[in-house]
Design goal:
alpha+beta; Alpha-Beta Plaits; 4-stranded antiparallel beta sheet; 1 helix; globular
Amino acid sequence: MPAQDRVPAACVHYAEGKGEAARAALHAFLDALPGQAGFLGAELLLSAAQPELTLVASRWAGEVPPLPVPEGVRAWVFQVQASR
């Protein structure tokens, strides 16, 4: 495996919600993440192409701890396979 493809075990957590209530809940969710073990950083994402949709993308060193995902929000964890 090329050196640039070798990354430490890391994960990305995505949380997705629709509507204003989900946007407010995800903003509060984002604010709570820095206190979690392994937290590396996160962003609240909006798109003009899908204005009703709000995402929180967070990066984690190792496994993602159990997170209090807001009601009505869907979430997924992805393992980082390569990074540049």
